[in-house]
Structure formats: structure tokens, C-alpha cells
Amino acid sequence: MRTSPAGRAFIGRHEGLRLSAYRDAAGVWTIGYGHTAAAGPPAPVAGLTITAAEADAILGRDLARFEAAVARLVTVALSQGEFDALVSFAFNVGEGALARSTILKTLNAGDRAKAAAEFGRWNKAGGRVLAGLTRRRAEERAMFAGGALPAAAMSWPTVLPPSVPSVPQPAASPPSVPRPAEPVAAVAAAGPAEGAMKEAMTAERATGEGATTTDDLPVAGKPALASKAVWGGLIAVAAALLPVLGPAAGLDAAGQGHVLETLAALGGVIGGLVAIWGRLTARVPIR
Fold first, then answer.
1. I need a labelling partner for 248 at 20 to 30 A (CA). Which of 4, 18, 145, 273 fits?
2. In the chain, where are the structural domains located?
3. What residues form DSSP beta bridges with 124?
4. Which of helix, strand or coil describes residue 124?
5. Which residue out of 15, 67, 139, 140 is catalytically annotated?
6. What class, spelled out in words, does domain 5-167+178-195 have in CATH?
7. Whole-prediction pTM value?
8. In the chain, which residues have pLDDT < 50?
């Protein structure tokens, strides 16, 4: 079976039509009639735009996937209204959800009345009951049961204005800075897109990068003597001057000239090693 023109219009009305990519209530990039990358190409991204004709073609391809899922999962004969309702349901919640649902189990068991009653349980997103989903499930139930639907529910939507993407706010944002409009508010008027959460969708997550440490980096205003290389140089200079300054200070009175020379050589070695160590461990400031 294929979705009827009325069923196709019903799905289009509830999904809404946007020709510019936007994030839906679940944070998933969406375009056209509720199309996401999970349903196949094109993959909606920021800045992507399409024409109304392209949106209609994408809808046809997306519907074919869910029509095939309904045909595969349902083991009893269906009326056109039942088929359209199940395709709309699967389009909205995903074929995996349909496969696990009590709607499918009771329908395949031959209890159509119980299957119809189960539609109303699927009206939550993020743990909250949404008015748009409640309305959609009630109309899908009526379609499934062969009841009459309002003419507005079977008409094609007009192009909805672009939605403002959700922008994460800092933990302590100044109260004077207004928060950007959430996409839920923009689609609530149309109702249907509130619950556009399909199987295999995942909200985009920011990946943070670890901050680069600034330990041991040169700090503005800090004396140059803080450098290990400078300290090493000073030790070496002091050691070299020891044989000259020692006698002036009376350190060779007991014939300790050879001791001063040894200390000078040892100090020179130590100073040189400290200077080399300072050069090897020096870090380049990040600009």
C-alpha cells in the first residue's frame, strides 16, 4: 500500500514545512517536512535551504521508508485509514518504536479497538506531555478508526518562518542579556513539530577541549631572576670570581687557594648544568 493523498497531507500538516534547516524540539537538525539525516539524504545542516518542490520530493522518499516498515511489521489486512495512521505514527516516533509498541502487538492479535486506544499513550517528549503530540495522536486514532477528521488536518501547510537555533547559555549569564528564542516556541504554533523525534536521532553535543596549562610560563612583571637559566649563569659567574674575591676576603690565609679553585670549578659545573636544565625545560608562552 501507499499513503493516500489525504494521509500525505495529514503528515505534512503535522510536521510543518520549513525550507531552511533548523533544530527541532529535540535539538536535531531538520528541514522540509520534518526530514532529518536519520531518514537519509540530504543531511540538514546550518544554512541549508531547499525549495518547496524539493521538500515534497524528500517527503516522498521518507514516506517510502515508513510505508515499507508498516507493510513489513503488520501481519493483518489494513484499511487505507489504518495504513495512513500507522505511517504517520511511525514517521513521528520511528519504525523501531512502532515495532515495540502495544499498538502493533494488539493490532496483529486482531484487537483493533485496543490498538486504536493505544495511540493516546504516545504524547510525551522529554517526559512532558505536549499539546501538539496529544492532538496528533487523537487525529491518528480517529483516522485509524475510520472517523472523520477536520478539513484543516488534511490540508497542506504553508511555509513556516525560519526557526532560531538554540544557543547554549553560560552557567552564570548576566540577567540583562536576553536568552535566544528556543525552537520549540517557534514550532508550537504549528503544533506538529513539537514531537518530531525519530528513531536513531541524537542531539548534537559540544565537545570541550582541555585548557592548556600555564604553569611555569613567564608572567608579566615577574623578575627575570625567576628563570632557572639565569640562576645557573649567576652561579657560574660567582664560581669563576671565587679565586679572585676569596683572597681579598682573607679566605686563603691558611693556604686554601687550591680549595677555592676546586670550589670555582665545581660551581662552574653546577651553574652550567642549572643553566642547561633551565633552557631544556623552558616553555614558550601561548599567545
1. 273
2. 5-167+178-195, 224-281
3. 129
4. strand
5. 15
6. mainly alpha
7. 0.55
8. 164-226, 253, 281-287
